[in-house]
User: Fold this.
Amino acid sequence: MPLDEFDLIDRFFRHCGPESSNVVLGIGDDGAILQAGHTGGNTEELVVATDTLVAGTHFPEHGDPAEIAQRALRVNLSDLAAMGAQPTAFLLALTLPEADEQWLSGFAQGLSQAAQTFTCPLIGGDTTKGPLCISITTLGSVPRGQALTRSGARPGDIVYITGITGEARAALDILQGKSRAETNTENHLLARYWRPEPRIAAGTHLRGLASAAIDVSDGLLADLQHIADNSGVGAIIEAGKLPLSKPVQTLTSHQWALQWALTGGDDYELCFTAAPGLSSRIDACMQSIGLPATAIGAITHGQGIVCIAENGEAMALQTPGYRHFGV
Ligand code: ADP
Ligand code: MG
Assistant:
């Protein structure tokens, strides 16, 4: 049987090195949680996450270098957001085919802009020669015991999604020359792909309210499946409750807009769960940060995710989400 990305991690890397009491949470979530030190009295924990973007796989190779840099930092910060962490700093490991000054100048400008926007300075890294590849490690902090994880969802909890999903998937069609739209629509969708918004304020405000959270990088259903697996539960999603993008619906049919909202990756919205009794507090919290969160379903006993179509029947979906080495 060929190994997919997650089997591979489980089999070869899940248990590497000694157990350590400094590791509050290791492999398997959006970020790892470490105790900030040995001595008592520490009230913050360190959250660490890393993500690699390979040219041609995670971004078009000949894209604008400033946009590539923006995207690279933003998608990495999204993992901190999913953990409820506040960014502290980041490291950059850059592999370049050549030291092209013009490319580097654009890249540095985009990177600096994103670093300013999210108050997250670059503190180190590594530079090597090879096929274009950008690896970023982000460091963040969270009050002890308050990080959001993938493992806390309980049957009966409500499933929420922030903002709108499916727009980055539509942008990909535009980037690949498969779709065209009028300029404003294209610009909106392309910005969603190149400059996704890490939902940091949502993550920090949901501490103590959300029972589990994940950022949607591979597709809403695929990423919700990670919450379900890590929490030992299932979920039921009502497709009719999903917010659909108006710009996407100008490009494609309602059915495809829905399919992309459920399975398209790269939106970096937060999917989270919370006990039903907290719904008015969740609404107030999201209102205070000006970001809508929509209740789209519920956590169930058992395992697997059932998606109910607008006509009440179980939906057949074309792809569950992106997997490297996937078959
Ligand atoms: P995300 O989509 O949030 O970046 P991934 O799906 O890439 O998360 O990874 C799932 C989990 O596996 C994460 O906890 C990640 O840190 C861990 N992981 C991925 N690759 C490796 C590796 N080569 N060695 C150790 N842990 C890994
Ligand atoms: Mg993630």
User: Anything to note?
Assistant: The pocket of magnesium ion (ligand 2) is lined by residues 30, 79, 82, 215, 217 (CB under 6 Å). The first helix runs from residue 5 to 12. The chain has a mean pLDDT of 93. DSSP finds ten helices and twelve strands in the chain.
